[in-house]
């Protein structure tokens, strides 16, 4: 099986790209056999991560791929940008924290929805958020 | 306009057919706020049955629609939020507080008939 079939990569530059990313991520999730609730969660998480990219970094990429180990399989969603970075990654993970006037639910919300969550950021160099949903 | 807005008696029914970009949601908000005046509508029903995602932006825009329509003197009800969409909204922390919701279009019309009767308007006859 080729790598491209198990991976989707969408550049995020406009709000149309948000739609494309969540549709393609959802299709990947469907192939893995996720149920309707998990598919909605995956699509929503992609939507929020893509939205963050647009808002704070102006552009970046959403990459989704399938992770298949002996014990479990799942979908990885990664949002990566070369934007200004986040100084205090702990602060942005608190509910209600917002520098944009938004609801401040984005990242903590995505962490709640997904099974695994990690954020790596370097000021001036960009941010990578990685989240995984396992097939139950 | 991506979302058709139908005039049915004293109500406007916006029936979302497919996933919307942010600009489409804003366009829908502005069109409804405008048309409530044009048609002197008593209520707005937004049917989101076809949507598989309601993210933070969509929820914020739906809240804005409800608030703007209220300021224009009419009522709003959101109908057709699917179970899995409701699930992910709650997981994300989106509650759509202060916005009326109903199971489907039929329930939404029922809700409107009650609400608009209460403020002294002749209800819409089925």
Helices of chain B, by number, come to: 4
Q: Based on the coordinates given, report the CATH architecture of chain A.
A: 2-Layer Sandwich
Tell me the fraction of residues in β-strands of chain A, as a range.
25-35%
Percent of residues in helices of chain A: 25-40%
The topology string of helices and strands of chain A comes to: EHHEEHHEE
Distance between the termini of chain A: 23 Å
Helix content of chain B: 40-55%
Give the overall pLDDT of chain A as a whole number.
88
- The Rg value of chain B, from CA coordinates, equals 14 Å
How would you portray this structure in words?
Chain A has one domain (3-134): Histidine kinase-like ATPase, C-terminal domain (Heat Shock Protein 90, 2-Layer Sandwich). Helix content of chain A is 38%, strand content 29%. The longest helix of chain A is centred in the middle third of the chain and has 22 residues, at 36-57. Chain A is of the alpha+beta class. Chain B has one domain: STAS domain (Transcription Regulator spoIIAA). Chain B is globular. Classes of the chains: A alpha+beta (136), B alpha/beta (126). The interface between A and B is medium-sized, with 27 and 22 residues.
Please outline what is shown here.
Chain A is α+β, with helices and mostly antiparallel strands.
Topology:
The complex is a heterodimer of chains A (136) and B (126).
Chain A: E1 7-12, H1 15-32, H2 36-57, E2 60-68, E3 73-81, H3 89-92, H4 106-113, E4 116-122, E5 126-134
Chain B: E1 5-8, E2 11-15, H1 22-38, E3 43-47, H2 56-71, E4 75-79, H3 83-92, E5 100-102, H4 105-118
Helix pairs in contact in B: 1-2
């Amino acid at each position: 099986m080729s790598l491209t079939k198990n991976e989707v990569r969408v550049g995020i530059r406009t709000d149309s790209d948000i739609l494309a990313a969540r549709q393609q991520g959802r299709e990947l999730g469907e192939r893995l056999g996720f149920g309707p609730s998990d598919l909605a969660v995956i699509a929503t998480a992609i939507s929020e991560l893509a939205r963050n990219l647009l808002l704070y970094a102006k552009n970046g990429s959403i990459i989704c791929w399938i992770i298949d180990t002996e014990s479990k399989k799942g979908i990885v969603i990664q949002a990566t940008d070369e934007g200004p970075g986040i100084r205090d990654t702990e602060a942005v993970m608190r509910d209600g924290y917002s520098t944009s006037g938004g609801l401040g639910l984005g990242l903590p919300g995505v962490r709640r929805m997904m099974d695994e969550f990690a954020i790596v950021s370097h000021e001036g160099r960009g941010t990578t958020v990685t989240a995984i949903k396992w097939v139950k | 306009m991506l979302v058709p807005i139908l005039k049915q008696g004293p109500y406007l029914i916006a029936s979302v057919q497919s996933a919307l970009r942010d600009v489409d949601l804003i366009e829908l908000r502005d069109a409804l706020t405008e048309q409530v005046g044009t048609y002197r509508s008593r209520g707005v029903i937004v049917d989101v049955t076809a949507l598989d995602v309601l993210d933070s932006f969509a929820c914020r825009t739906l809240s804005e629609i409800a608030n703007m329509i209220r300021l224009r003197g009419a009522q709003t009800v959101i109908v057709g939020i699917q179970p899995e969409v409701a699930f992910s909204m709650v997981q994300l922390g989106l509650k759509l507080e202060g916005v009326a919701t109903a199971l489907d279009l039929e329930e939404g019309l029922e809700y409107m008939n009650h609400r608009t009767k209460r403020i002294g308007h002749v209800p819409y006859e089925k």
